[in-house]
TrEMBL record:
GN (gene name): csm3
GO MF, any single term: endonuclease activity
Name of protein: CRISPR system Cms endoribonuclease Csm3
Keyword Membrane assigned: no
Species per Swiss-Prot/TrEMBL record: Pyrobaculum aerophilum
Start and end residues of each CRISPR type III-associated protein domain: 52-268
InterPro entries, A to Z: CRISPR-assoc_RAMP_Csm3, CRISPR_Csm3_endoribonuclease, RAMP_III_fam
Keywords of the record: Antiviral defense, Endonuclease, Hydrolase, Nuclease, RNA-binding
Entry keyword RNA-binding: yes
One Pfam family from the record: RAMPs
Biological process terms in GO annotation: defense response to virus
Taxonomy, superkingdom: Archaea
Amino acid sequence: MSSSLRLGYVLEISFRLETYGLLIRSGKAREVLGLADIMPMAIEYPFVIDNRRYILSVPYIPGSSLKGRARALLETVLGLPLYTTDGKIYLHTRIVRNEIRDEDPYCPVDNVFGTPAIPPNMVAEEKRFILDCWAPTRAIFRDLFPSDEYLRRLCDAKGGCEGVQLADFLEEKWENRIDRVTSTAEPRNIMRLRPGVEFKGHISFLIYDLDVCRKPVCDEKSQRRELIVGKYKGVPALYYLDMLIDSLKLVERTYLGASGTRGYGTVKFKGITARLYDVGGNLVNEISVEDLDKFKEAALRLPLECRK
């Protein structure tokens, strides 16, 4: 990592995620008598509705699920090489078994979503430039929980929040697997989220000094320099943010969670607010848009200044 690394800005991105038949599997279902074969993830979580505090059992979306799906789709679209360390999971990463495989300092997947660390003394001399261009993961994905607006509507429909249960978020879906030879049916029972369940989400996007003030050594070693200088006004942070938004748009166009090719997991990002703060906590700029397309347009106009 660069020995003179400084954090310059933090972009706080909030959004609502509308879901349609989402299924992110829980391993608990078969351990509880009477539950379905497959159940969504759920947790006890505190909410404040109309100035009253409630502890409700609700479904949630792990931040790792959204982050992993967005990362995988972006890797595929960019055509990046994939590696494995265990023979099971393939993904793109800058470091494989303490060896630098991707030498481009401006790789958006490595910089936005993160890459394993490497001890500086294990970096070959001809690749030590990467340490001057290195910074921690930019995008921090938080877990997603039902939005206050959705819960308020549910509480009103139930005559009060005390009556809200996990079952109010779910629907039962039966599936059949058919034996091609005997035509025997093997039914199973799946509980998934009802269409229309809305979540609130948050991503913190860290912007370091080298993401705004480019270093000559990073420019020299990157195949993306001309793209960043031409389209992104010479600011790598705008490139990284644009790639993050593109990865979320890819999730919208495909699916999130399990069984996406069988009708599950359609999602829609809505009500996006992004607030740019300097390291002193002062608000520098604010974006409020309804969808990812408008967010993509507005994000390129963020006033990021190189302060040396």
